[in-house]
Amino acid sequence: MDATELVDKILSDAKAEAEKITSQAEVTAKVEKAELDKKLAEYKAQTDALASKAGLEKKSRMLAAARMQIAKELLAEKRQIMDGVFKQAKQKLKSLPDEDYQKLMQKLMLKAVETGDEEVIVDSVDNRIDHKFIKNINRELGPGFKGNLRLSDHKEPIGAGFILRRGNIMNNVSLDVLISQSRKDMEIKLAKELFGN
Fold this sequence. Notes:
The chain has about 200 residues and is an alpha+beta fold. Helix content is about 70%, strand content about 10%. It has 2 domains: about 1-95; about 95-185, hypothetical protein PF0899 fold. The protein is built from 4 helices and 4 strands. β3 (about 160-165) and β4 form a beta hairpin.
């Protein structure tokens, strides 16, 4: 074998070895790329899942905050309406014709009497609950009651309605107290609507 053939053989063997190494490197690169692609896909899926979860949580928080704000505004609106309604109700009750006012007070007093010997305190300008009215109530009181209600000389600025007093015990049945109690009941209902049971 002469020198040229020897050089050609070495070059041919080197070329074959280079092709073999290149081929192996390409296979290895493909395997590593496939593994890297797989890992990147898993990482992307995890990242997307976390981002989606975070997005849903943020969206959920934003929706909850928006719902709460709307509920607060609705509650404020309902309270404003209630203010007007209770103000009108109080005015209407105060300005009832004498006969209607006395019928209402009669029902309230008959319910509120505990023993029948209480003292009845009225508003300083009220002349619709008078001695005649008290006399009729005493007649109406059924068995178990003394029927000795008496109109007090002492008057209080209660607006409308009355206070029953027996010793140190007072039962305030003024319209302000009745309306205030009705309002509290309504506010409890509104709070339940806002915050649930």
